[in-house]
UniProtKB/TrEMBL annotation:
Keyword Amino-acid biosynthesis in record: yes
Name of the molecule in the record: Acetolactate synthase
Keyword Transport tagged: no
CDD domains for this protein: TPP_AHAS, TPP_PYR_POX_like
Source taxonomy: Bacteria, Bacillati, Actinomycetota, Actinomycetes, Kitasatosporales
Organism: Streptomyces albidoflavus
Cofactor mode of binding and number, as noted: Binds 1 thiamine pyrophosphate per subunit.
Amino acid sequence: MTEQATGAHPTPRPRSSGPQSAPVEHVTGAQSLIRSLEEVGADTVFGIPGGAILPAYDPMMDSTRVRHVLVRHEQGAGHAATGYAQATGRVGVCMATSGPGATNLVTPIADAHMDSVPLVAITGQVAAKSIGTDAFQEADICGITMPITKHNFLVTKAEDIPHTIAEAFHIASTGRPGPVLVDIAKDALQAKTTFSWPPQTDLPGYRPVTKPHAKQIREAAKLITAARRPVLYVGGGVVKAGATAELKVLAELTGAPVTTTLMALGAFPDSHPQHVGMPGMHGAVTAVTALQKADLIVALGARFDDRVTGKLDSFAPYAKIVHADIDPAEIGKNRAADVPIVGDAREVIADLVQAVQAEHTEGRTGDYTAWWKDLDRWRDTYPLGYDQPENGMLAPQHVIERIGQLAPDNTVFAAGVGQHQMWSAHFIDYEQPATWLNSGGAGTMGYAVPAAMGAKAGRPDATVWAIDGDGCFQMTNQELTTCALNNIPIKVAIINNGALGMVRQWQTLFYNQRYSNTVLHAGPEGADQPNAGTRVPDFVKLAEAMGCVAMRCESPDELDAVIAKANAINDRPVVVDFIVHEDAMVWPMVAAGTSNDEVMAARGVRPDFGDNEDD
């Protein structure tokens, strides 16, 4: 099995992985499963019981080490496990029954796969003899999730449960992290077996490379010191590797500008003078342009995805590429690398620091004076900003900015997907890793509330804000009931513009303002329907019905007081319905399918950077 192996297979016959404890006789497979979860350090499981997984829920009731959080929808369980993992760095765990319970996990599993989140999803399956007969609530969840898991297992024998759980957690958390699914037949959970720990494991071929090749490191260091316009392009892999301290050392040693992707916000302090912003479709003008005009891009734990590169064949036309990643499949996938480096980001960056220091000792240092003159001019000329609405309504950017400014230190922010996601990326300062959670690769609406729930469950001492749009909120808000009943006091800001904001923005720009099916809150004024012209649902009433404290804010004059009140409430979930104007847009923007050279700082405003350099 390789680093990127996927697919179900019978669990292998194990080899010894170390000294064994005395076996515990006469346990069921279900008891073995819960004991295994305890031994691998899983302290929280998000899930819903059902027929096929029900045997596991009985011994879980007796566990003093595993807390189960009963969610309202399996999608919420998966996103909560992801939020838990992103906030804590530990493996998130979710559990569901067979059939529709398992298929409801598909979206969060795909989300975790795209964003390289360590996740173990445990599903019940019909009895082994019934597999393949279209039995009640049967679904081939291993086959369904084969393309979106790092690996998955079908367990049909009780004795295979301990080593399978140990292998699943190891695979999920090592190398490039990712989701692993363990599908367990009901009769395996009910059968009698023995339990011993540590179990015998067997993972032939799974040997993630963590130590980078020294020659490649030296070549990268030489390019860095020889470059005139280098950029450190930092992706989420740096956060997952715990390499943020090393990154800061490398950045300050080289003096190169740093751009952090949507998944890497907080990997390098936003306030640091070398930070030039987030790149991408809605990235800062300086970050987008720095990559376009660079003569060297040092990509660390990033994958050159389309949201960063824009039209790929026009991306960074003058740049040599150093690409470091734990996953060899990413290197050269979208952009050829002049210096490919396979390894763990922490080890790569630490070795780069030593190699660059050696270059400096030999008198070879980079001179980026002219480069920084350009970068500083672009930052001054095209800063991030927004306009206040002329009608006196709340600007959504202002709401999000003030939430960030008034939040306690080290607050964790989980954002949904859409305009509010981009504004949260731009107008909140991220100084520490694991304080920004979002769905980057899959772009999953409905992510924020359950992810915030998982983050708060994993880090109960941290303040956790979910910043959601009214569209996203209506997909998974039922998990507020879960929060209220399980003492998980998250805070939710609904950026309520009454529309699917990002889709509406595209309709404004590219579809002649034909707003087809993007209005959420009401029918047209004067229409012959009961709720014409009114906001439906009333989010305050809805949140209160689910056991939350709820408030509404419609005026800039109320903004700070409402946010302060929300921050002061820590014994229950809090929901604030911020009524914002509907025509706000996310800028800067690179239209889909176009070159990053066509970045627009605002509507109708295309920056002028002068002639491109081609040396």
